[in-house]
Design brief:
Number of helices: 8
Bound molecules: 1,4-dihydronicotinamide adenine dinucleotide
Radius of gyration: 17 Å
Strand order of the largest sheet: 3-2-1-4-5-6-7
Order of helices and strands: EHEHEHEHEHHEHHE
Shape: globular
Length: 243
Amino acid sequence: MAEGKTAIVTGGSRGIGREVALRLADLGYDIAIVYIGDENEAAETVRDCEAKGVKAKAYVCNVASFEETKAVVAEIRKDFGPLWILVNNAGITRDGLIAFMKEEDWDSVLGVNLKGAFNMIRHTAALFIRNKGGRIVNISSVSGLMGNAGQANYSASKAGIVGLTKSTARELAPKGITCNAVAPGFIRTDMTKNITEDNSELLRTIPLGRMGDVSDVASAVVFLLSSPYITGEVLRVDGGIAM
Ligand code: NAI
């Protein structure tokens, strides 16, 4: 599927993003990881991608910043070949009941999860258009489709991802660029380390009766990235939660 060779994966240092990066490296893509936080995790992902015979590099960049994302896309463009794939996966939670939610918790979650995806699409769209094609996948959440008590900020950001995905898909379709979203349910990563499968109440909400693995999500991402006739779609990977 490699028309161009470069894939950008935000939040690719660990969790779902890391698995997506590894799967794309398996397919022969060079990998640019955009992340914030633990540099050892990022270095490990880069090493594991390189071990698959592709070029890989990690860039520290706060996706919530318009200027930082502009600079990082320019740097990636210098370091790598033509861009073919963007996966907007970086995300955070700052949960709390809406009656008590701090303004900064609203702003930071919307900033990273929603504006972050906008920033990355904004700064890469011209590159995709110039290359006459490309693939974008944004990571939403079932929380954005159904709502979730205690996650007003997170749900709003992930519902926003759905609108962003569909508008981007419509706008860039004439240029041969697809844009889709994946909406995971409960996936075992650092983000959900406080949720255990011993919680039978949680398991009752999941028809398939288990939390998902990062590979469940990565498979859906790769499917959408390799599907030239699917755009504007939101694919749930949630064990049936939001059906
Ligand atoms: P994680 O916490 O394991 O990894 C998050 C990644 O995002 C890290 O690589 C981190 O460096 C990066 N990141 C965080 N803030 C950033 C910023 N300001 N700028 C650049 N990078 C930043 O998270 P996980 O679980 O792998 O989640 C990945 C995506 O999937 C997120 O968008 C999350 O909302 C979404 N998701 C996760 C679910 C789960 O159950 N784990 C369920 C539904 C959606």
